[in-house]
Design a protein that fits this description.
Chain A: InterPro entries: RPABC4/Spt4, Spt4, Spt4/RpoE2_Znf, Spt4_sf. The complex is a heterodimer of chains A (about 120) and B (about 675). In chain A, the strands form 2 sheets. In chain A, strands 2-1-3 form a 3-stranded antiparallel beta sheet. Chain A has 4 helices and 5 strands, in the order E-E-H-H-E-E-H-E-H. By secondary structure, chain A is an alpha+beta fold. In chain A, a hairpin with a 5-residue loop joins strand 1 and strand 2. Chain A is globular, with a radius of gyration of 13 Å. The model of chain A has no long low-confidence stretch (mean pLDDT about 90). Chain B is of the alpha+beta class and about 675 residues long. Chain B has an 8-stranded antiparallel beta sheet with strand order 10-11-12-13-9-8-7-14. In chain B, strand 7 and strand 8 form a beta hairpin. In chain B, helix 12 packs antiparallel against helix 13. Chain B is flat and about 105 Å long. The N and C termini of chain B lie far apart (about 75 Å). Classes of the chains: A alpha+beta (about 120), B alpha+beta (about 675). The interface between A and B is large, with 41 and 52 residues.
């Protein structure tokens, strides 16, 4: 395994949330402890209110990516550049605009969810 | 037919092949070369056109976009093309195993991770070429998922790991995926699986991505909830299907409007509060339909007759429940705040909260909440965001508005946004309007502009008197106090309440205007000047003088004038029962100064006390909705023995040089 993996969710109830940019899935408390491993600039561990803005409990499906560099599924889902961890296939909402701007400032890509 | 690559020249190519269309014609292949900055060696850009070579050959499979060839691989792919479809599966399995024996080796053959910019640039070039070349082609099976060329470049190839379907304990799918992740972290390189996928809608199974079945088996060892017995490989052509997410599940989220399909609340609008995708259940809030008395009886053990009717929707009144001795529990939820438990049901802010509602028992498509339904939710809902939702939902679901000639309108979308004017003509979806010239630079605008009805709204300036002709507030007249996008806030004349209605549901109800009045209203539009408008000939019956078509007895004025100064009582309409004094007579209407309200109002002369005709007031002055002609046969007063003959179409004083028989009571529509 290449990079250090993200925290693995410790429970699977309502507290489970997905990051709106990278779709990493962890519990609320885990985001509070160590933020998002792929999106440190959101600083969720510093500003706890950010968690609600940056993550959503509405998501569909879970994929545990052990090796993002070799996974076809991760590539297809555009997760190949992120750290190993548990992700979701799709989120229901887009990142709020101000946070999208933050992504631009940080020169990190953001792809809004597709609406069919 | 092999194409040999010269290994020494170290060319790296990228190839994209078009999938066959339905008729089985080969669309051809295209090769694109890319520079690989990762590799120091110079890459030669060379283009080869393969169309001639593969002119008639059938290809039933798709090929991945990016591929590094070594010679063996190239030969294999060619053979693949030559094979019939039946042989293809075996081939893939065989090559997969052979080529990818060493995991490390696989890496070199992989598409390297390029810096973002380069990837995008190349994809654009790719996109252009493909679009140019295959503009007319139809698409194969899974193209529905592939809407972007970019995505097409990511299709699975023979070099990628396969997906394996593995049976597991129901309800544990997500946990097992996470468990495998943990195992991977613990065991590091011992665990060779690449990823594990738990789909919300698929119970009992998970997918594991791995190069070999043996790797899958090894990974499942020691996990009690997963069975290594039932392992099935997924067809390469079906791999993308595995990862496509049902859009319905995603569209449903907090705040979405849905309708209940069954039970007491069947057909009722409900608002989604929470979604559980795994268990396919939602929590919704509804306006309760509870018969409190029946509930009280039931709880006291009394006999309750089987309900033969559904109670009307009404917000829960906790005090009322308590008065009926229904036990009420007041609780607090750390997430949602206060709520009440009554009769085993949960109420929050007056709404009934239904939890554990199966997704199958709600409709999510084409909900089309009506304005009134949303308004009802607003009443006690209280949350600010509800308003934003309402307005946007309304504009999304707005039913077709009926514009008729003379309606004052405003453009709300497109280049002409904010332009005001009047409707000239309506042709199905296109409305022709006469723009209001408020600035000198607008003089160059054409006399008539065509606007799509979707981009147009009826427009009523604050201060305008209007009447509601549709919805629950139908019949109300009042003055526009405020305009909020598509909504009007009107001060009701009768109830003195402020009501909210859609602009679509309202028509102008101004008093009949004299010359001076017209100038006043135009002053709102700035320096607009009324040209003398001859009526459109096509709307008249032959030979009729437009100025006389509605007027038959000019002499009649003298008779009507006799009313001035008389004290009268109003018999019908919103001012029914009021006494007042006639101050002026204008055509078929009189202006009465109301005794009680210190108000000057206009009423149809027939509703005042010296008249016995019981015709409804004010309706007659509105043009029929959707009707083109403003002439109402029903209002002919000829039947009234006592009244002065007032004639159809006569709505403006004859003195007005701009009089137009097709006018309603709004300012004359300029031609």
């Amino acid at each position: 395994m290449g990079s250090a993996p993200a925290q693995i969710p410790t429970s699977f109830g309502h507290e489970l949330r997905a990051c709106l940019r990278c779709r990493l899935v962890k519990t609320y408390d885990q985001f509070r402890e160590s933020g998002c491993e792929n999106c440190p600039f959101f600083k969720m561990e510093e500003d706890n209110e950010r968690i609600v803005d940056c993550t959503t409990p509405n998501f569909n499906g879970i994929i545990s990516v052990m090796d993002p560099t070799r996974s076809w599924a991760a590539r297809w889902l555009r997760l190949a550049r992120f750290v190993p961890g548990c992700y979701t296939l799709a989120v229901s909402e887009a990142l709020p605009e101000d946070l999208q701007n933050l992504c631009e400032d940080e020169h990190v890509p953001y792809v809004p969810p597709k609406r069919v | 037919m092999a194409r040999r690559r010269d290994e020494e020249s170290e060319e790296y190519e990228e190839e994209l092949e078009q999938v066959m269309d339905d008729e089985g014609e080969v669309q051809g292949r295209q090769r694109l070369k890319r520079r690989r900055s990762v590799f120091a060696d110079h890459v030669v850009d060379e283009e080869e056109d393969d169309d001639e070579d593969y002119g008639g050959r059938r290809q039933k499979t798709y090929r991945r976009a990016a591929q590094y060839f070594d010679i063996e691989a190239e030969v294999d792919s060619d053979e693949e093309e030559e094979d019939e479809e039946e042989g293809e599966d075996d081939f893939i399995v065989a090559s997969g195993a052979d080529l990818l024996g060493e995991d490390d080796g696989g890496r070199i053959h992989r598409l390297p991770l390029l810096p973002q910019d380069e990837e995008e640039e190349d994809v654009e070039a790719l996109e252009r070429r493909i679009q140019a070349k295959y503009a007319r082609s139809s698409h194969a099976e899974y193209d529905e998922e592939i809407t972007e060329v970019e995505q097409q470049a990511l299709l699975p190839s023979v070099k990628d790991p396969s997906l394996w379907l593995v049976k597991c304990a129901t309800g544990c799918e997500r946990e097992i995926a996470a468990c495998l992740m943990q195992k991977c972290i613990d065991k590091r390189s011992e665990l060779q699986i690449i990823s594990a996928i738990a789909l919300d809608h698929l119970k009992n199974y998970i997918y594991i991505e791995a190069y070999r079945e043996a790797h899958v088996r090894e990974a499942c060892k020691g996990l009690c909830k997963i069975s290594a017995k039932d392992i099935k490989r997924v067809e390469i052509t079906e791999m993308t299907d595995v990862l496509s997410v049902k859009s319905k599940a995603i569209d449903l989220s907090g705040g979405t409007w849905v309708r209940m399909k069954r039970g007491t609340y069947k057909g009722d609008l409900a608002k989604v509060v929470d979604v559980d995708n795994v268990r396919q259940k939602v929590k919704v809030k509804l306006i309760p339909r509870i018969d409190l008395q029946a509930l009280a009886n039931k709880l006291e053990g009394k006999e309750v007759p089987k309900k033969s009717f559904v109670p009307p929707p009404r917000f829960m009144n906790v005090a009322e429940a308590r008065n009926l001795h229904i036990p009420v529990k007041h609780k607090r939820d750390k997430v949602n705040g206060d709520y009440f438990e009554i009769g085993g049901m949960k109420f929050e802010g007056g709404f009934l909260c239904k939890e554990e509602v199966s997704m199958t028992s709600i409709s999510t498509q084409n909900i089309m909440p009506t304005f009134d339904e949303i308004e009802n939710f607003r009443k006690l809902g209280g949350r600010g965001d509800g308003d934003i939702v309402s307005l946007s939902t309304l504009s999304a679901n707005r039913r077709k508005a009926y514009f008729i000639r003379g309606d004052p309108v405003i453009v709300v979308k497109g280049d002409l946004k904010d332009l005001k004017g009047w409707v000239e003509k309506v042709e199905e979806e296109i409305v022709h309007i006469k723009p209001a010239i408020t600035k000198p630079e607008m003089e160059h605008l054409p006399k008539t502009l065509s606007v799509n009805e979707k981009e147009l709204r009826k427009y009523f300036e604050p201060g305008k008197r209007v009447k509601v002709v549709s919805g629950t507030k139908e019949g109300t007249t009042g003055m526009v106090v405020k305009v909020e996008q598509n909504l009007l806030i009107i001060l009701s004349e009768t109830t003195k309440e402020h009501i909210r209605v859609l602009a679509d549901d309202v028509v102008d109800c101004s008093e009949v205007t004299g010359e001076t009045k017209i100038d006043d209203s135009y002053s709102r539009f700035g320096s607009f000047r009324i040209p003398h408008i001859p009526p459109t000939p096509s709307r008249l019956s032959k030979g009729e003088n437009p100025y006389n078509s509605g007027v038959r007895h000019r002499r009649g004025r003298g008779q009507r004038d006799g009313l001035v100064g008389m004290t009268v009582k109003i018999r019908l309409g919103p001012y029914k029962g009021c006494r007042g004094r006639v101050v002026d007579v204008r055509g078929p209407s009189v202006r009465v100064e109301l005794e009680s309200q210190m108000n000057l109002v206009t009423v149809d002369r027939r509703v005042i006390s010296d008249n016995v005709v019981s015709t409804a007031y004010c309706d007659t002055f509105q043009c029929g909705r959707g009707g083109e002609t403003p002439l109402h046969p029903c209002m002919t007063p000829m039947r009234d023995p006592g009244a002065t003959p007032i004639h159809d179409g006569m709505r403006t004083p004859m003195r007005n040089p701009a009089w137009n028989p097709y006018l309603r009571l709004s300012p004359p529509s300029p031609a």
